[in-house]
Records
---
Amino acid sequence: GFGGDQFALIPPGSFRMGSTVTTRTDEGPVRTVTITRPFRMQRTEVTRAQWRSVMDSLPPQSSRCPIDACPVDAVSWREVQEFIRRLNLRDPGRAYRLPTEAQWEYAARAGATGLSPVAPGGLNASAWVTNVIWSWPVAVLLPNAFGLHDVVGNLWEWVADWYAVDYYTRAPAVDPPGPDSTGVRSYRGGAVGSGVARSTLSARGGGAPEGRFADVGFRLVRDP
């Protein structure tokens, strides 16, 4: 379900967003970003069981991991919006939504300043990134300091923003909302099979909002 225990409280704060280590131009320049309001983020990616509980059936192409505890995949950004609409009707007052890119990276970092979540045992203890299986049940590996699982690896995660390669060069420093419409929506975090280089806290990608991608899922945020 979507009870309070499924969401971690993320306090306001500032962090360094982006990376200077990667050669990808969409991850820089690194800048200090401030999140001014607390929010709650789902501890795991939305699972197949959670999707079915709201939408009654699974997406037609969602079959990479058949277990209910696996994250739902092959859902388009627009289908996610319909899922959120229905969930908000069922549970009013919570304001379920996708995180902004800045909220996602701030929560995913949980104080980490490098490319990977801080967890005992390193990246392999907290992220599925190089396995041949497309996805794994959620919350198997260690969470980050905010209690969020699989922020790197397992599946990329849709976020609210439009995607622009150069957005960091002009984004506001406080609660950046993302660029104006570009026709492409952002996703974050890397996926199983992405490899270490693309499974980082700063990695960005984007796809058409109508597109269903086998390695893209999502997690929710809501009001405290």
---
Amino acid sequence: MRKTLRVLNVEDSEDDAFLLRCALEKGGYELEFERVETADAMQSALYKRHWDLIISDYRLPMFSGPAALALLKETSMDLPFIIVSGAIGEETAVAAMKAGAHDYIMKGHLQRLIPAIERELQEAIVREERRKAQEELKANKTQLSNALEIAHLGHWEYDISSDIFLFNEQFYKLFRTTIEKIGGYIMSSAEYISRLVYPEDAAIVRREIQKAIQTTDPEYGQQVEHRILYIDGTVGYITMRLFIVKDAQCKTIKITGVNQDITERKKAEMALRKSEEKYHSLFDSSIDAILLTQIDGSILDANPSACKLFGRTLEEIKKIRNVDLVDTTNPLFHSTFEKNELLRLFQKS
């Protein structure tokens, strides 16, 4: 099956263009072919359709091969550009190649044309795949960077052989500072620990680094919390997640990780713990009998005064409902107590 080849030919000679077409058709191609001989005509043709390659003479009355190559570069189109000329010296040909031409062929040696075209078409495919891969990688990096920023995650890498930490910009935002204030993206492990880790937690960071270096598990991963120093000297908390990269000899060569600021969460947890401690202190020391109950009357907790009043252990009280603690059929209950005055009930829905 003949392959379709879309060729833009920069050539002033109709005869030479005819010979070129014959060579291409003989090489097994079904042609979509257009000849131009001026800059305006070439520029118009470039945007008219998609071309597979450009074949250009070197010298034309009102145009030239180098000028055609420069025009192509201005469009940012990545098309194979082959010079086919009958009057070009070796130095001129080398200069054209340095300028970006992919090959040059003498008009008297058109047998070289088909192999050159097939090679350059394949190279164009490789370049296009590489370009797409680079664009995809760039897009993925952008997405990752955005995700890290949204999640307030600071990424870092530690190269063991050089003892150097490498940080991203979000990492510094986590510490409430900037790359400019810190002095760059990299620093030694000793500098990182002394400048950004809370002194009493420095041993935690050193221990985790050593564990990651010494582990024989290639899938090793760890998560640990420790305190940090913001750039203003105040204390914060982070969760550090780290992973390792090993070489062929199973030696750890790099540690990578992400840090997440959990300061607000830790503050909330500490405030809740203090509130609970205060509640339990008041609950346990109150001289009033206090029960913590559900709406259905089941008892969740009782303070020591309640246990003393009812003559039961906490375990015994929690097995019964609050209304069963008092014999409401006893006349003494009605003459001496009002049920709601006997017990202070803290109900929990």
---
Amino acid sequence: MWRAWTLAVALAAFSRATAAQTRPDSVRGRVTSDSGAVISGADVIITVAPTTNTVRQTTDSAGRYALAIPDGTGEYILYIGATGRKPFRVRLTRTGKDSTFVVDAKLASSITTVATVRVAARKPHPTASLNGDGTTGTSGNDKTVDGVNGALPPDLANNVDAMATLIPGLAVGSGGISAFGMSSDANNTTLNGMNFSGGDLPRDLRTSTRFQTSPWDPTIGGAAGANISQSISGGANIASRSAHLTFDDPSLQFSDPIASHIGQEYSNISLSEGGSGAYALDQLYYSYGLQLTRRTASVASLNALDAAALSLSGVSRDSAAKLLQTLGALHVPVSAGVAPRLTTTGLSFAERIDHRLPTIPQGSTPLPSWSLTALGSYRSADPTSLSPSAISTLAGTNTNASGMLLGSYVRYLGKDGGYLNELSSAISYSENRGTPYLSLPGGNVLISSVLA
């Protein structure tokens, strides 16, 4: 009986304590900015402790809110937030018998104000094009080959015909480079934007070569076949040098026994040097290349009566001897007294000088610039026209000399250099001279054979 009475008293006390802790509460107030302006639509969230239940509401057009908490515990966390405003948080604790909390909140701005920033864009300056390509070809019918190309042997560097063999769609024959099956006469070759004969440049000269084979493009003119653009690169403040020595000898060559009689076995030596740098830093730059070659090959003439070489031409040694005897009886000179050894000597040189001032400040007009390019070549062959079926007096000496001088001037005009004026001019010289050993009319002899 005593235990039952004690349990009833404990339950009654617990019920009175619970009722005292969970009575209704309310929270109301007004939300404004730190300047006193009404903030409508602000989020008002009350978190009830320790249950973590929440009660939510937004402020009305007058910035007011009122939230009822049916099962209040007397401990709350009030959060008020609005876009662009710093949030407001406060802890509420019930004291005494008052069950209504009045909380007015002022929300300060959370937007950071920075100084006015002005962004201005300027039209880029035009790029000069006469002194070089300016762009790089990357497609199948528009390909740029660098001056230093690992796919070519050193003795063929800067050789246009050799570089063309690396370009799909181009064929190289005895007549030169062919595009779309056309002859080389349909091609156009330029050097730094000016017409160029397309001869070999020194192999250590820094260049780039571009092949274009799309004549239907209206921006490309002057060629129905291939448009070949070569450009000599300009110098820089950092100096560089390169040199090559190439040597070849018949002992390093593999051929048939007759090759040595018709000039197919040869000795060759080639020495070249190139470099770039600055004559005056940030002002005057240079780029140059120099190459010297010498090639010798044994060539038999009819005078030697070489049976192996004559048989290759379809002539018997007896017939050749009879011809020489007949010419001697007619007092026709048959010997020029020269060694049957063809010697070819070549020399080529090129240099480009540029005057460019340092980069100017943004928005200023670039200062004028100019460039001067000079190149020349000389080649001689002695004796020429030697063959197993020709007498040595038919031979002679052949020399070829050429030179070219190119100049360009670039000046920016208009406001902030919005217009570009390019002036380019070139003068070239070419001479091909053949000097025979004897100034006599030539003749041909037909030898027929009768089969028994």
